[in-house]
Description:
This protein has 2 domains: 21-116, no CATH class; 123-182, no CATH class. Helix content is 44%, strand content 7%. The protein is built from 5 helices and 3 strands; from the N terminus they run E-H-E-H-E-H-H-H. Strands 1-3-2 form a 3-stranded antiparallel β-sheet.
Amino acid sequence: MGARHPLCAEFWLAHSHNVWPTSCARRLCVIMAADLQDPPETLSALLAEWQAGAQVVWAVRARRAGDSTSTVAFAQLYYWLMRRFVGLNEMPATGADFFLIDRCVIEALRQYNALAGTPAAGWSSLMIVMLIIGGMQMLMMGILGEYLWRALDESRRRPRYLIEAATSMTEVMITATSRQYTTPGNPP
């Protein structure tokens, strides 16, 4: 595409980190996955929308051909969560993994440190505290679960041991004494 269109340059990234438009040197940037799940033929339609004045152009999937029902359901859940909790209300319901952004958007995105991989101040200490608290909660839930299990087991009122057969105590004593005298080497 870069050889055919004067506005485009192609980048083949070795890793999937830092794929944001920090590597774009021209007037726009198209972000798409290298697995060709989204067809590159739609680039011309994205460029036409950009030339018409759009600064952000999302390629929206009409349907997810070839994906299982569970994959489609989890994808819909993911994009719903992104729209609901992250604040991307304008994001299409089927997602926008393939999009074009203008130089103005690129410059606006470069102002955020989060795209450069710099963690927010206090993130490490917050994560340590959260992991300790989460570990303590899991430990307490395990203890509570063990307590509930033992209470349930006790409430069933089942006997602790099942005795298949029993003899009287005198028979046990006679058997024990008779064995003592009937062993080889000990005459009765």
